[in-house]
Each structure stands twice: as C-alpha cells, then as structure tokens.
Amino acid sequence: MNNLKILIVDDEADIALILKLQLEDAGYRTTRARDGLEALEMLAREHYDLILLDIRMPRLDGIEVLERIRQEWPELVVVMMTAHGSEDIAVEAMKKGAVDYISKPFSSDDMKKRVERAIEYNRTRLENERLQREVEEERRKMEAILQGMAEALVAVDRQGLVMSINRTAAELFGVDAAAVHARPVEELLSAAIPADRLPCRVVLATGEPCLDVAYDLRLPGRIVPVLSSAAPLANAAGEMIGSVEIIRDISALKALEQEREDFVSMLSHDLKTPITAIIGSIDLVKEGRLGPVNPEQSMYLDAAVESCAEMVDMIDTLLDVHRFEAGRMVTTLVEEELGPLLQRTVGRFEPVARHSGLELTLSLPGAPVTFLVDRKQFGRLLGNLLSNALKFTTEGGIEVRAELPENAAAAAQGITPGAYPTERLPREGRYLLVSVSDTGAGIPADSLVTIFDRFVQARNRKMGKSSGTGLGLAFCRKVMDAHHGFIWAESEPDRGSTFRMLFPLGTD
C-alpha cells in the first residue's frame, strides 16, 4: 500500500481529520478537499489512487462530482460517504460508477477494509480491461491475417458445421460468410472425393493433421483443382472443438505443368526430328554421294555430327529428368556384375582421354561383385561423370575406383551436410562405393550441394569454364535416388574433384 494516495472530500473538518489519521496510520498518503469544486481542481493537478467522496456538500454535491470524475478520470476509484439512513442515495451513486460506500458514523476497521477492497477491485478491473484490449488487438490482428490470406480458410465444429470462412473462401465459393454459417461443410465444399475424405472431416475423425490432399472442387460453371491441408482446432484445455482447412487454388500450377508437358513434348518431337534429318544429310555428304569429300571437309563433317549427338544427348537428359520427376521413369533393377559394366563404360572414354593427353584408369575389387542396377541408367550415370571429368581436367588423369567399404557410416562421412536428410544417411549394411576422381581445378565448397540441382553449374574458379545445360548431375542424383543410393562430391581448390556413389548391396 506504500505510495497510494487518497483524496478525502468532506466539508466536515473533524470527520476528514479522523479519516486522515486512520488512513495514514494504515500506510496511505492523504490529502483533503473541502468541497466538490476544490476536489475537481486537485484532481486536475495530480494523480490519486482513490477518492473518499461525501455526498452532501456545499457548492457541488458528491453525485455531481462523481459524474464529472467518470467523464474525465474513468480509472479513478470512488468510494462514497453518506449519513446513516441515506443508503438509497449511495446505491444510486454506485449505479453511476462508485465502487462502494461508507455510512457515517463508521468504524475504522470497516472503513479501511472497504478502501482496501475498492483499491484491489480497481486493480483487477484495470487488469481485466488491459487483457481484454490485448485479446481484442490479437483478435483483430488474426482477423486481418485470415482475411488477407491468399488461401481459402474454412473452420468447422465437431459436427462438421461451418463456423467461419475468410474473404478468399467467400470469393472462391461465391457465397456470403454469414449465409454458410452452421451449414454442413459438404454443402460448401462440393468435391470430387467422398465427403469423409475431405481433410477437415479426416481431422475430425482422427484428431490428427491431414496434409497436402489434392482434389477438384466443383464450383458453379467450373472445376478448380486445389491442394488442401487441415489441422485440429483446440480450446484452452487442449480439447478438440473442430478443425480448420486451408485450401489453395492450384489452377495456375496445373497450367504451368501442362506448359512444361507441352515443352517436353516439343523437345522430344519437334527438335529431335530435324536433328536426325541433319545427321542423315551429313552422312550422305560424308559417304561421297553428293561428290568427293577431302580429309579437311570430312573432319568438319565429323565435328558437325558430334555436335548433333551432343544436342540429342542433352535433350535425352532433359527428358529423362522430367520422367523421373513425373514418376514415369521405369527403373529395371537386375543383378549385374560390376566389372564388365565399368569396363564397358570406361572403355568408351579411353580414346577421348588419350587424345586429351590424360590417363584414364580403372580399379576393381579383387573378387567379382554383383549388385542390383539398371544397366542403361548406370551407364549414363558413369558417362556423365566421366564426361565432366574430361571437360574440366587439362593435365594429370582420371581414376574410376570401385570398392566394398567395411563401414557404411564411415564411407558416408564425406556426404556434404544438407545433401540428404540426416535420418536417411547409411549407418549399417553392405554398400558398393564407386568413385570418379580427376586432377582438375576442383569445385568451390559452396557449390558441393547445389551442383546436383537442375540447371545449376559450379563455375570453375580457376579456369572459368561453365558449359552445358546443368542437367547432367541432376540426372545422376535422380538415378541414385531410384537405386536407393547416395551421390556426393568432394573437392578442394586446385586438387581436383571426386564424385562418390554408394549403392546398397542388401544382405547375404
């Protein structure tokens, strides 16, 4: 109660003095005003925590002062004082905003208890008002967020009746929010799936979130593809009182997917067909059917055929990456012996390596190794890595090494952080490790993860080389994912690069 100030307003000096002594003895600070007008002047000059206000006073009575206080100082606590027998007037004063009243003559204990109670009541009232303001502010913020969402929001109760929808939902469904209140959610969400499979209904049935459900909404005159997720709504006690479903219109995404399909179709037909025609025409010229061809001309024709082959290979890589992402790439895993597969692919690149003055070597385990693999995909995977190694290596050599690590977790320690989820990394089991190492300029450390993304290339800092589509390593990652394996790169500036692949071997 320290530093609490009380203003005593009473025209009777002896009563005011008694109140002053008793209150100051209880630890309050007090000031006296002789009438209502003086009290208003004092309230205008300084702050008080409580005012003891006599009802009957000259110039301005207590009721009139109370009305002024409620208008100008609404947070001030007012306790009325009235003569015995005038309690009805005091009750009327309480209706106008007084917290309590004291009847004269009064006991010291009763007066102090009423003062303490009035102050505590006012503290509680002000705290409640503050909390209510905060709640209202948060409600308005949440309302603004929900109304400003690009996604449609539908909240339902435990019976599946609509409690509220946001502005986006109202516009999407073409309804008024008030008109759909308390209606079954199925009437609002007319979907091409059974009603019990709507995410909000699944949540009500299971009590668990239902995420990323794609379905078509049947709206007047159109079908809208959507991606929807729902979560439980809980009260303060943690009890589920309903669910809320967030619905995203994915019409634009579907249109983009169709455009991508059209583009891929164009690549596979409209581009490959003329390239095939070009290669056929060049072959006719090379064979001399259109006249004699000298060695220099033949060299240029070979270069043209090689460029066309590179273009076809790039188109095939793009198509294969698209097939992997669309889930249409068929991976046929067959038990194959590792040695012949590696020897066949490495053998194709030996002439190119010799022509570039590079040494290409192959190291195999002492005993034959068989593993489940898609022969064609493995050949292209290794071919991409060797092609990159040859492209970025000007001196030294390239080594392809296969081994059976004793500890899978140790072998996987070189995997770049962030390349795979931690829980997916191998910890035990038998694996085949295939590595392609070169003595080129290396790969910047900040590119070791992103180089396996589509259309991403690591710029060789030393040589400034950056050519190709940026799809080759993306294809390699897709192949390793299809084989339930891992691929990563290890590199240091000016010390070359090593690409490692871990293939699971299963159990004996």
From TrEMBL:
GO terms for biological process: regulation of DNA-templated transcription. The keyword Signal does not apply. Its EC number is 2.7.13.3. Residues 138-197 form the PAS domain. Residues 121-148 form a coiled coil. Pfam families: HATPase_c, HisKA, PAS, Response_reg. Keywords: Coiled coil, Kinase, Phosphoprotein, Transcription, Transcription regulation, Transferase, Two-component regulatory system. InterPro entries: CheY-like_superfamily, HATPase_C_sf, HATPase_dom, His_kinase_dom, HisK_dim/P_dom, HisK_dim/P_sf, PAS, PAS-like_dom_sf. Residues 266-507 form the Histidine kinase domain. It catalyses: ATP + protein L-histidine = ADP + protein N-phospho-L-histidine. Gene3D superfamilies: 1.10.287.130, 3.40.50.2300, Histidine kinase-like ATPase, C-terminal domain (3.30.565.10), PAS domain (3.30.450.20). The modification 4-aspartylphosphate is found at residue 54. GO terms for molecular function: phosphorelay sensor kinase activity. Residues 5-119 form the Response regulatory domain. NCBIfam families: sensory_box (TIGR00229). This is histidine kinase.
